[in-house]
């Protein structure tokens, strides 16, 4: 696999996580958002976070 493809995939996952975190923060607030919420919203594992 090409390094550019790997980098592109990583950036896509990063963007999904950030978007999911913003959604979770707006729904529950920063203090009440859990890693589980972000993982579920972004459809990635907690380990990936």
From TrEMBL:
Keyword DNA-binding included in the entry's annotation: yes
SUPFAM superfamilies hit by this protein: Homeodomain-like
Alphabetized GO MF terms: DNA binding
Superkingdom of origin: Archaea
Coiled coil residues, start to end: none
The protein's name in its UniProt record: Putative transcriptional regulator TetR family
Keyword Transmembrane: no
Keywords tagged on the record: DNA-binding
């Amino acid at each position: 696999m090409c390094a550019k493809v790997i980098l592109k995939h990583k950036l896509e996952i990063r963007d999904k996580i950030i978007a999911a975190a913003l959604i979770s923060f707006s729904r529950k607030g920063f203090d009440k958002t859990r890693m589980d919420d972000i993982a579920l919203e972004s459809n990635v594992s907690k380990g990936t976070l």
